[in-house]
Amino acid sequence: MTGQPRIGDVFGELLRDAMAVATGVGPRPLAGGRLPRPVIEVIERDDGLINGAPAAHYLDGPADWQPHDHRAVDRVRGDTLDIGVGAGRIALLLQEREVPVTGLDVSPGALAVCRRRGVRDLVHGTVDEHAASGRRYDTFLLLGNNLGLIEGRERAPAFLAALAAMARPGAQVIAHGTDPYGTRDPVHTGYHEYNRRRGRLGGQLRLRLRYRELGTPWFDYLVCSPEELAGLVHGTAWRLVDVDDRDAPYYLATLRLSA
Ligand SMILES: C[S@@+](CC[C@H](N)C(=O)[O-])C[C@H]1O[C@@H](n2cnc3c(N)ncnc32)[C@H](O)[C@@H]1O
């Protein structure tokens, strides 16, 4: 016993349990061995902040989505790569609309949940690994705040280059981000300052996720303003062509492959 979590497939385990709670099928986490308990994703930040978020929303159908999710899906066209597909909520609606969609995820357990829910085309891996497959796409989705996967100044060029390598002419990226700078909460403004002092973007979160006895390694996840995103995209194969911030502080950024 080290007091530290065992490194494992946190997303996969929590999505499997969330699905068991939602469907009543399969072993569920129980309180006191009797009562079903909600599945909570525990998010640790490297300043010691801990948050818990119910995992059930990863399974939500369109009726329970945020408005920006609907607007994102309405912008999809052509062959689509859903990056960080999670439990497949977006991919399932695209399949229903007969959009050819591939779900990509690093979590084997998330892919297993997707498969059980009926997502047909699934790939295990990162965008860099998938870029080697030779498959090409017209739309790349980074939904459920997954703009965060661009991580920060160091990772963004390589991440965007991997997408460009898989992009057909005229391809687009539709990414859901959150502008972190509207808050006055000193826990967050202090963290943004701490990050800048160590040469990072203010909202470049250093996180690890935990579920039950499992944890992920520490990783970077970016929450940035549209202006910071424009800076990260500048000089890559992509142009930031639209920011829809009708649900501010959330926004949908559209990038287009430069001609
Ligand atoms: C916040 S969830 C979003 C899920 C889904 N997009 C949605 O909107 O419900 C993040 C997902 O991204 C996956 N993920 C994390 N890092 C990844 C990476 N480097 N490449 C691909 N998927 C990743 C996780 O396993 C998880 O399923």
From TrEMBL:
Alphabetical UniProt keywords: Methyltransferase, Transferase
Source organism of this protein record: Micromonospora endophytica
Domain named Methyltransferase: residues: 81-170
Cited Pfam families: Methyltransf_25
Keyword Methyltransferase belongs to the record: yes
GO BP, sorted A to Z: methylation
Name this polypeptide is given: Methyltransferase type 11
Top-level taxon in the UniProt lineage: Bacteria
Lineage: Bacteria, Bacillati, Actinomycetota, Actinomycetes, Micromonosporales
Example GO molecular function: methyltransferase activity
